[in-house]
Amino acid sequence: MSTIARVKSLPVEGLKKALWVASIAAAVLLVAGPVYMLFKYSISDSTSINTGGAPIPLWPYHPTFRCFTYLFSDSQFFGVITNSFVIAACTVGMSMLLGVPAAYVLGRFRVPGRRLLLLGLISVRLFPDIASVIPITEFFIRFKLQNTYTGVILAHTLLALPYVIFIGMSAFEAIPDDLEQQARVMGANGFSVFFRILLPLSIPGLVAAAIYTFLLSWDEFIFAYFILGLGKISTLTLFLKQKLAFSPPQNLLAAISVLLSLPVIVFSLMLQKYMTAGITTGSVK
Amino acid sequence: MADVVLKNVSKRMGSSQVIDGFSLDVANGEFVTLLGPSGCGKTTLLRMIAGLETVDKGDVLVGGKRYNNLPVQQRNLAMVFQSYALFPHMTVAQNIRFGLSIHKAPAETIRRKLAWSLDMFGLSGLEDRLPRQISGGQRQRVALARALVLDPDVLLLDEPLSNLDAALRDTAMEELKRIHHQVGTTIIYVTHNQVEAMTMSQRIAVLSAGRLEQYDTPRAVYDSPATRFAASFIGSPAMNFLNGAVEVHGEDAGVMTPVGFVKLDKERFTSAKAMAGRSVTVGIRPQNIAYAEHHESKRYSDTTLSVSVELVETLGDRSLVVSRGENGTALRFLITRDIDIEPQEMVEVFLDGRRVHLFDPQTNANVFSF
Ligand SMILES: Nc1ncnc2c1ncn2[C@@H]1O[C@H](COP(=O)(O)OP(=O)(O)OP(=O)(O)O)[C@@H](O)[C@H]1O
Ligand SMILES: [Mg+2]
Fold this sequence. Notes:
heterodimer, A: MetI-like fold, 2 domains, 12 helices, 77% helix, disordered N terminus, disordered C terminus, B: Rossmann fold, CATH 2.40.50.140, six-stranded antiparallel beta sheet, 9 helices, 24% helix, elongated, binds adenosine-5'-triphosphate
C-alpha cells in the first residue's frame, strides 16, 4: 500500500522539484539581471555603450572604474553622500525613538481602539506620496522646516513610522506571555522586563525595521525634492535628478545608481541573519 | 519558606465560574498536589497564588500575610510554567542568575548559588548553552534550578513533567522528591497525572470543575475517596460503579444491583443496616474483583458473580478483563498474565465486600467506606 503510493508519487515529486528549481532560477535571474546590467554599465568604457549599431557586449571591452573615481573626486558628490547618510541615520533614530514605544504598547497591551489605530496607520500609507507631499510641505513651510535637515528627517520619519510600528508590534506580539510573566514572578518590574526580556527578543524585528527605514530614507526622492528643492542641502537622489537634467553618459548614471543601491544590497545580506526563524525556539515547549 | 492558605477563593473568567469557593491549607514545607482533569482550574489556582490572576472573592494567605493585592514581583514565590518559559536569548547560567541579579544579590552569592544549582541539578558543563541547545529534560531542570536559587517561600509547579517521556518522567519524579527532601521548600504541584500525584505528594487536593472534591494523603484518597468523582479519577483502571439499593437479608447486609446482590463487610453490618432501603451507587475497584478459579478461597464477605467476558487487554504483568454481568452491566477486573480467558467465556468472579464503597446518587458523596 505504502510502496504503491510512493512509486506513484515519484514522478510528481520530480516534477515538483524541477518546478521549484525553475522558479528559483527565474527569481534569481529577475533580481540579479538588472543588478548585473547596472554594474556592467557603471564600469563600461564609452565604446562598449556607443557600439555604433553592434550589439552591446555582455562584459565591457575595457572595464574601468573611471566613473567612480570621477564621482569621488567631485567635492559636491561627497557632501551629497554624507547628507543622505546623515538624513537616513537620523530618520532611523527618530523613527525608532517614536515607533518602538508605540509598537511595545500596541503589541503587549490591550489598547482600546487598537484596530482603528492600525487601520489609520495603514491608510496613511495608502495615499500616493505625490498626493500627500503637497499638504505636508505646506505644513512644513509654515513651521519654517523647508530647506532644513530637520524638515526632511521629519518627513522621512513620517513615512517610516507606520512600518516601524507595524513590524515592531509584530515582534513584541510574538514573544510568549509566559516569558514576561515568568520574569515578573522572579521579581522583575516593568522596566527590567522590557529591557532584559522583551527588547532583546524583539531585536531581530526592530533591526529589520531600522534597516527598512534607512533604505526608505536613502532612496526617497519626492519628499526630499519638495522640502529641499534644489537648495543648499542635496541628497543622493536629488543629485541623480540634477545630473539627469544634463543627459549625462549612461555609465556615469549607472555608477551613481550603483552607489545608491549599494546599501540595499549590503543591508539585505545583513537582514538575512535576522530573517532566520526560530530565535525563540527552546523557550516554551 | 511559608505556609499557604486559600480561603473560599473564587474566580470568574468570561462567563464561566472557573474557581468556586475553593479552600486549601498547605503547611510549611509540605508537598501538595492539585490533581484534576484538564480544564478544572488547576493552573488558574496556581496563577492566583502567584499573583498572575486577580482573586474575585476570598483570601490568599502566604506565611499568614494577605497576598490578594500584593504585586506579583513582591511575592517571594517561584513558579515553573508548564512551558518552562526559559529565556531563549540567555544561556543556562544567565537564566539561573536572572532572578538573583534582579534582586541585586552580591556577585559572590550569585556565583555560589549558580555553582550549587548546577551541581544539584546535574547541569555542569551546560552553563553556556542556550535553551534551544539542550534536551527537554535538561530544560526542565534549568527551570527548576532557576526557581530554587531564589529561595522562594513557596514553589509553584505547573505540570513540569508533562513534556517529558515516560522514562525521563520517572527519574524526574525521583529527583523532585529528593530535592524537596533536601531543600524543604513548600511545594504546590499541579498535574492531571495521578501517578505523579501519588508518588510525590504528602497530600493531594482532588479538583473537579473549580471545586475541591477531597484533600488528604495519597493513601486516604485512594482508600476512602470522599466523592464519586475522586473515586473515579484516582486509581487505574477506573473504578466500577453499579446502581442499587441497600437491603438486609437476615445476617447479611448488601446492595441489590443489576448484577446481583453485592454483600457488604460483616464488620460494618450495623451501619449498613441503618441504610436499608436507601438508593446508593456501589463503587468497587477492578483490583478488588478476583477471578474465582484463580482465587485460593472465597471469603464470607465475597460476592460471587457470573459474568461474560467481552475483552481482555494486556497491561503488562496483568490483564484487564472487560466483562458484562446480567442486564449487560459492565464490570472490569484484573487477572494475572498466566491466566487464559477468552472473550465470550462465562466466568465467575468474587467481589471483595470489604472493599466496597457506597456513594449517594444525588450528592455523589461517599456514605460508606472502609
Ligand atoms: N481567559 C479565559 N477566559 C475564559 N475562560 C478561561 C480563560 N482562561 C481559562 N479559562 C477556563 O478556565 C478553566 C480552567 O482553566 P485552567 O487553565 O486553570 O485549567 P487546568 O486545570 O490548568 O487545565 P489543564 O490541565 O488542561 O492545564 C477552563 O475551563 C478554561 O476554559
Ligand atoms: Mg493547566
